Structure formats: structure tokens, C-alpha cells
Amino acid sequence: MSFYQTSVQCGDDNNNNSSSSSSSSHHPSSSPSSILATNAVVAASSIVRPSLMSQVGMAGTAAVITVTFIHPIDVVKTRIQVSNNYGKLGMVGTAVKVTSDEGFLALWKGVNAAWLREATYTSLRLGLYEPVKVVIGHVGSGNDDSTTATFLGKFLAGSAAGALGSLAGNPFDVLKTRLMTSAGKEMPSMTKTAIDLYSNLGIMGFYRGIDSNVARAMVLNGTKMGVYDQSKGYVVAATGWSKKSLMAQFCSAVIAGFFMTCTVAPFDMIRTRLMNQPPETKIYNNACDCMMKIATKEGPLMFWRGFIPIWSRFAPTTTLQLLIFEQLRSVMGMKAI
């Protein structure tokens, strides 16, 4: 091959190379914007939309773990609500009296019923929140979460999930309340309590206070999930933390716990009074009758008696439940609430 031919060939090769380089440099797939778009698609595809059973199962796990540690506060709160004597002692005085009269383990009376309650009631009210949001159109389909939910939408989703959970968990709620208020050093039997309740009142005995319990669950879960979801948006916007940040989840859960106590305390008082009625006497006919009798005979402020122990229970319960639930979702590759 001559020098001229070689030079021409080299020149052609150089031109071809530069043309290829120029072509590839202008190819859309290699531009920074297209790379970012591709990464975004890959990241979105890695977010898993959890199945219904996965969400309910994770919520139940978080709830059962939490109630094991929080149950003593619930025992103290319930004793204060059903007895004027305990009400005068306050939270610390009630805890001291219960442990001195009935033993330290008395603070865990009814924990077995509480486990069953959490496995039904809380697993549904917490696990169904996001699916209900999807149903009412406040979350986009698939991996698209672009639809912005209003606080009302979040509250309604939480309320609907709470009502469904309450219907499933009411029998265990009744048993738990009776076991927690039983006196004496002997640990009460859940089986014996259930048999006695059925013998005296039939199957409807397990649904005592169902009206107030459903109303309570709707207000409680609507406030809990609505305030948690909404406040997390404010916390993330103010701090720059991500939704998966433990600090963002913690702060949002603490805020939700306080507002839950304010809205739920009256319903909690009515529910406890209805569920703890003696089998042989009927003091209150229904939730409305109970509300009127408490308001007229004991005063409106009676609805908030035990506010501190209720808050002392709601604050750690809400925080632990939501933190554990969020971490389980993260482990499963799911997005934060």
C-alpha cells in the first residue's frame, strides 16, 4: 500500500472515529439528564408496593412487641378509670398499690388477651391504612405516589382502618379489660374469664361496648395515622430529613401520640366503663347513655380523668409501633409511610 493510500485511510479512520464520537456524545442515552432519568426509573422499580397480608403481618408484629413492654401502663390507666379510689391515688400511687397488694406481675394481668387484641385489632388498623388510602384515591397506583393526600383523606383512611380493626378485636378487648381489673394476687385465667362471660351474657357479651369501641378506634386511628402522616411531611420539609429517617419518624410519632390522647380520652373512658360493667347489673344502656350519665353525675372533666397515664401509654406505644412498623417495611424494601 502506498504512503498516499495509507494517509487517506488513516484520515478516513480519524474522520469516522470523530464522527462516531460526535454522534455518541449527542446520543440522548449518554446525556446527564437521561442518566438521571434512568436512575430514577431503576430506583422507583426497586420500591415494592407491599401486599395486604405483608402490611397486616408487619403491623401485628410491631404491635405485639410493643404491648409487651407498655402493658403495665395500660393496667394502671384502666384501674384509675374504673375506680374512684385509684383515681385519687394517681398514676404512681396506683402502680405502688397494685404491686404491693397483688405483686409485681399484676402489672401484666391480661397481657395474653392484649397480645391477641394487638394481633387482630392493631394489625388491621395499622396495616390497612395505606391500602385504604389507595382505595379512596389518595395514593397513586403501582409505584407512583405522586397523588397528594389531604389531612382529611388521611384521617378518613385511618378511621376506616380503625373501625375494621375494632370489629375484629372487640372480644379480646373485653377480656383484656376484665383481666386487668381483676383483684387478688392470683393471675386470672383468660379461658375461665371467657367461659364465665359467655355463660352470663352469651356471645354478645364479647361485644359489650362495641359502639363506643368502634367510635374510639375511628377517632384514635384517624388521629394517629392522619397526624403522623401529615406531621412527617412538615418535619421532613423543615429539617431536610428523609421520610425513612428515624428522627423524622420519632418526632412525627410523638406529635401523633399527644393529639391522640386529646381526642381519644373521652371515648376511652366510655369504652372502659361499658366493658367493665358487672354481668348481673346494667349501669349504662349504651355509649350515649354512658356519656350522659358521666357528664351529668361526675362532670365533663371526668372524660379526661387519667389523661397523664393515657398519654404515658399512647406516647411510647405510638412511637414504638410506628418505628418498628416503618423499620420492618424498610427491611422488606418498602417505602416509608
What report would you give on this structure?
This protein has 337 residues and is mostly helical. 74% of the residues lie in helices and 0% in strands. Helix 3 packs across helix 5 and helix 6 packs antiparallel against helix 7. 39% of the residues are buried. The N terminus is likely disordered.
What's the SSE pattern? HHHHHHHHHHHH
| Largest beta-sheet details | none
Mean pLDDT: 82
Strand content: under 5%
Structural class: mainly alpha
Question: What's a quick, concise take on this entry?
Answer:
The protein is mainly α and 337 residues long.
Question: What labels would you give this structure?
Answer:
74% helix; 337 residues; mainly alpha
Fold topology:
Blueprint: H1 3-25, H2 32-46, H3 52-82, H4 84-102, H5 111-127, H6 129-135, H7 151-180, H8 190-201, H9 210-239, H10 246-275, H11 287-297, H12 307-331
Helix pairs in contact: 3-4, 3-5, 3-12, 5-7, 6-7, 7-9, 9-10, 10-11, 10-12
